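Troubleshooting entry. The earlier prediction with iron/sulfur cluster gave an output that would not parse, so I re-checked the input for stray whitespace and re-submitted. Clean input:
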Amino acid sequence: MAILNFGYAISRPRAIDVDNNDLRKSNDIIAEMPELQACIGCGSCTASCTAAAITDFNFRKLHTAVRRGEYKGVYDELSKCMLCGKCRLVCPRGINTRGLVMLIKRKLGDF
Amino acid sequence: MAYRVVIVGGGAAGMQTALELKSRGIEPVIVERDIELGGKVRGWHKLFPTFVPASDVLFPLAQRVKAARVRCFYGQEVTDIASDGVTLRSGERIPADAVVMATGFTLFDAHRKQEYGYGLYDNVITSVDLERMMNGGGVTLADGTKPQRIAILHCVGSRDEKVGQRHCSKVCCITGVKQAIELREMFPDADIFNFYMDIRMFGPGYEELYREAQEKYNIHFVRGRISEAAETIDKRIQIKAEDTLTGRPLRMTIDMLVLLVGMSANYENEGIAQRAGLELAPNGYFKTVDNFLGAVSSNRRGIFYAGAVTGAKSLADTLAEASLTASAVDDYLKEVFNK
Ligand code: SF4
Ligand code: SF4
Ligand code: SF4
């Protein structure tokens, strides 16, 4: 009897797979900017972001994904940032968010 | 002769400490900077989480202090303290056998968060302004009309590196929930939104009240910090935030913005601590010996703390702590003088 294929086996899992994600880049980034771990996810960076006002760019989501070892598409997405630095003015954790954009790009250059 | 203990500050902490000392046969003396007792609770409308009028706590306390004939100095600022007394700004010294610091906290000045327009836009107010309005003539917009849409912003001047206030002020989350419910009762048809980053409901009945605010009072909770407010041409306020749970920027026009201002350490702490050899915590509050058995003791024997002078605290916690302070003072006096 043929085994019914419900499609479960072939779709890419949606879960963030922390077991298998390569956290080396993420750890590298955090090592250079430890204060990034202090992010409370308040969304001020995204709320004030010049690029987010006109595109679906969401910096909070991007840097959170990077910290989880999810790098796919991040480098290209970050090219929407115009490095205006508004996000840095509002971050309540004092994270150098503008510098973070450049740091992530530098570290993820080959993704 | 009874031992004499000078208590610096006649707010809830100072009054309760005085009463507890008195009942132990110790003579308390309160030095209050203001012209009457009560501290920050004065002018407050109702207390979380039970909506008990603040005056129901304050008046009995002040009455008891009066009935106990506690000696009070009014309009006197203490500039220096030591274990054997305090010095007033006038230069006068009040000798004592021990000293209790109960000078509380300073409200965060909302002007410092310029991006929210406090002092610039008519209908941006603080949580303290709101209490005063409720306590006085009632809540209206600057032009006397009713607000249709209100936003309450958590963590203003707390957890914010930008204004040098790293700590959580602890009481503003529950205050925001309480005020949202009070606003709902005043304005049944208004839309009310609380913008928060974390909801901290640490006390008994707090989480329950939060849930009630959501279910029964239909308060909307949006997870995201307002990044800026701007006045529109018709004197409304446009706010921007990220609705972090949908991951999208959010924009909204409201009639009134309430800023939940935090509790900061008093500016005077630094000088007083330096001259008395007392340790301060990094956020400027006085530092206790530890958080457990030394929670009301300073690093200088004979100097004790009560209430929010060592960190943000609710009124309930402050009153409870005052008993602990009195007991620590009593132990100290017995140990040092009754050998
Ligand atoms: S620097 Fe980039 S991420 Fe930051 S506000 Fe400007 S465009 Fe947005
Ligand atoms: S503003 Fe700072 S704390 Fe808030 S989400 Fe962005 S990086 Fe995190
Ligand atoms: S109690 Fe709530 S509103 Fe106040 S500082 Fe802490 S998290 Fe922010």
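This one parsed fine. The CA atoms of residues 121 and 338 of chain B lie 61 Å apart.
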